[in-house]
Each structure stands twice: as C-alpha cells, then as structure tokens.
Amino acid sequence: MSIAQVDYNGLIPNNVGLGDDVRVKRALEKWHPGYINWWKDMGPDGFQESMVYLRTAVSVDSKGWAVFDYVRMPEYRWGILLAPAAEGRTIPFGAHAGEPAWQEVPGEYRAMLRRMIVIQGDTEPASVEQQRHLGKTAPSLYDMRNLFQVNVEEGRHLWAMVYLLHKYFGNDGRDEAEGLLQRRSGDADTPRMLGAFNEATPDWLSFFMFTFFVDRDGKMQLEAQAQSGFDPLSRTCRFMLTEEAHHMFVGETGIGRTVQRTCEAMVKAGIDDPGNIEAVRKLGVIDLPTIQKKLNLHYSLALDLFGSEVSTNAANVFNAGLKGRFQEHRLQDDHKLETAVYPVLKLVGGEIKRVDEPALTALNMRLRDDYTNDCSKGVARWNKIIEATGVKFALTLPHVAFHRHIGEFRNTHASPTGELLDAATWDKKKDDWLPSSADGDFIAGLMQPVVEPGKFASWIAPPKVGIDNKPGDFEYVKIA
Ligand SMILES: [Fe+2]
Ligand SMILES: [Fe+2]
Questions:
Q1: For position 353, what pLDDT does the model report?
Q2: How far is the CA of 371 from the centre of ligand 2 (A)?
Q3: Which of 68, 168, 293, 325 is least surrounded by CB atoms within 10 angstroms?
C-alpha cells in the first residue's frame, strides 16, 4: 500500500502502518473511548445525531484527497494522516542543518519537542470547545456545515498530535494525551494552555474572526513546524496545513460576506455614512465600525499567541532544529542565524522604536511579521468588497502595540494607530476600539438561526459557490 492511500479497515484510519504497530495501535484504541466521550460532551451541542455533509480524507496526495458524504459527527472517521516522506530529507536549519532528518526523537531535545507537540495539540480541542454552541445560531445550513467541518478537522488535528505523543514519547506521551482530554477552554481550574483559546466565541462574527485570525496563527505555527528536523512532526504538519486552508477560507469568506451584506443594505437604504450606526443596525446588518472592533479584538488576541518578541526559548527550538521559520526552505541565508540581526519593535524611553536584535532570539517577532503580512492580504480583499459597493470605509489591522497582554507592549496602552496613552485615556476610549457589551448584545440579537435550505440570515450574503459545487438550496445538514 502506498503512503498516499489510507487504511480504513481498522478502528483508526491511518497511513502510518498502524496495523503493524501493535503497541501504538493498542495505546490509541485505549485513548479512543475517552476522545469520543470528550467529543460528545464538548463537541457541537445539539447536533450529534444530525447528518452533516462532510469531507473526509481518503488519501494524502495533492489532488482529490477528500470525499464528501453525509455522516453523523461522532461517526466521523478521525484518522492519522502524514504527508508522504521526502526521500533523503535533511534538517533544514539550526545547529544540525544538513544532517539527515530525525526519524526518532533526538534524546537531548526530547522535553522541548514534547512541549511543542502538547501546546499545538492543546489548541485543537480548545477551539472545538469554544465553538460548541454556535450550531444553534447558524445563519444558514451552509455555514453550519462549515462550522462542523472545521470542528471535526480540529478533532483530527488532536489525533495527529496524540499519535506523535503515543508513538514517540512512551509513558510521558500517554499522560500528555490524557491531559489533552482533561483541560477545558475557559475553565477556572484546568484551562487550555494559551490565552486566546480560553476566550469565548459568543457569536458567528467572532467565529469568522477566530477562523481568520486564530486559525491563521495555527497555520503559521504549522508552517514553522512543517520545517522541523523531526520528520514525523514535519509530515504531520504538512498534511494538517491542507485542512487548515479550509478553516481560513471559512473565516475570510465569512467576514467578506458579512461586510458585503452590510454595504449592500446601506446602499439600498441610501445611507452614506458608515458611522451612522443606529440607522445601519436598523437594517438588520452589522455596522462596519463594529466589525472593525471585532477585528481589533481578535487580531490583538492572536498576536499574543506568538509569545514574546524576544525569546531565548524560540532561539533554542530553532537551534535544535525543531521549529523553523515561515517558508524556511525559500529563505536565502545560512539557516543558522549565528550573526544575523532582525528589527524588533520595542518600547524605548516611552516610545515605540525598531531595534536590531539577534535574529535567533527575534524568531517570534519574525513569524508574527509574516503573520501580519498574511492577514493584511485578507483585509485588502475585504476592502475590495466594500469599495465595489461604493461605500467609503476601509478595515485596517490595528497597531501591534494595541491591546496586548504578552510581550513588549503588555504593560502599556496604545490606540489602534499605535499612539501610547495613559490609563485614564484608554479607559475612556476603549469602547470605541473594542466590542462593548452593548455591541455584543446587538450582535447576539441578530444571531437568529436559519435552517431552511438555501436561506440566509439577514446579516450575511450567500456564498458565491457551494461546497463541493452543490447548488444553493442543498441541504448541507439534515438536522435530527
Ligand atoms: Fe487545527
Ligand atoms: Fe484550524
């Protein structure tokens, strides 16, 4: 059987030869019931019996790896899927650059590698938990189906990390795999590991912002880990990235359709001023300034996920060959960064300045810059949608110092344009920049479910094309 083919005969679909790996197969089969219990408790609330039109991976080659069919989510075939091995692959960066890629865990980096895998793994079930109530307010069956597709794939990403833990980390790995099922997003005693994954996702605008901004952080982390000298992690992340692309599609088009609907309603009603919030809201759409506030919130939370701008831990994992840079293989330098520098935004004498830091310790900042660049392309596409309607408004990414809780700017207040403020000014202005509870109430009021095939809630435009080229009135979810 070629690596591209997936073995669907056992309990756990896989292309890693699990049938011949008795120890790991048993360990995963033991973990499986706990996972299903977790899914039933913490997965999409109220839709476990519904038939959902989902894609499942049947091979990992580049074309046509997915088949679409109706499935009850608890019966989704969560599998362990690695991208094909690259023959003769070498470690692409760090102190071991050029040596053969590791097929087993390098002993000296075991703890560091385990921590990376656990943190990545922890984010996957966290987002399912954060999104579990959203099915009940879906603006259409199309959107509901996309939510559930994202959810089952985050579940599969958890499987991907749990496989690595069981396969390569013995008893420690088993304990970590248990822990991944025990923590809960937002729980006071046993929260998920990273801040943004303990925030609420109260409405669909938040969901779209989350998949655009936070899943995109996921993409950047996966890109960096796809470069890893530890080959099983690299291959795992490379396949996860193919799924992640859909999550970002859901976010980008979700915001795009929301913005489009708002602008069309404004034009139709003859409202020129996007700041006339009351009038726009009466049209049953979300005013553009509130969309901007949601963007400000989710972008700033996502930036915190990159960690401190200057970090010796980031330098260590790079040096060790475990986590590279975004598109490391395309970068033209020595891939060791022993003497290179990188400009980092810092607070110097009460001002925000660019300061050259050793490139090795500035790797978080660098990945964050690549992320911001990626985000700004999506924002530009949203602005094209607005522009095409003739409405005069542009969405923008706030300054990286705005509303931060981690890193260089955590103890300061800054406006969305990067102006430093005292606490009193911040308190006065923050409801202009971040969603207020009144904004939240307004959005919550709009979140009326629409479950008739082909129909959409007032605040969002239909998609241009259906999933799997299905017609507009296709019944993506058969609600049970
Ligand atoms: Fe994921
Ligand atoms: Fe994702």
A1: 95
A2: 15
A3: 68
Query: How far does residue 283's CA lie from ligand 2's centre (Å)?
Result: 32
47 falls within a domain: yes
Residue 392's CATH number: 1.10.620.20
Identity of residue 12: I
d(CA 242, CA 227): 15
* Residue in 167, 12, 5 with CA at minimum distance from that of residue 79: 12
> Which ligand ends up closest to the CA of 161?
1
- Read off the pLDDT of residues 148-172 as tens digits, 9 standing for 90 and up: 999 999 999 999 999 999 999 999 9
Angle between helices 363-389 and 288-304 (to 10 degrees): 170
Contacts of residues 354-358 at CB distance under 8 Å and 24 or more positions apart, as own/partner, are 357/309, 357/310, 358/315
Find the mean pLDDT for residues 352-373: 97
- CA 284 to ligand 1 center in whole angstroms: 33
**Domain membership flag for residue 7:** no
pLDDT digits (tens, 9 = 90+) for 210-265: 999 999 999 999 999 999 999 999 999 999 999 999 999 999 999 999 999 999 99
CA angle 18, 20, 26 (to 5 degrees): 60
Contact 442, 15 (CB under 8 A): no
CA 187 to chain centre: 20
Q: What is the mean pLDDT of residues 116-137?
A: 97
- Residue numbers of the domain that contains 66: 18-478
Measured over the CA atoms of residue 351, residue 436, residue 212 and residue 224, the dihedral's sign is positive
Q: What domain count does the chain have?
A: 1
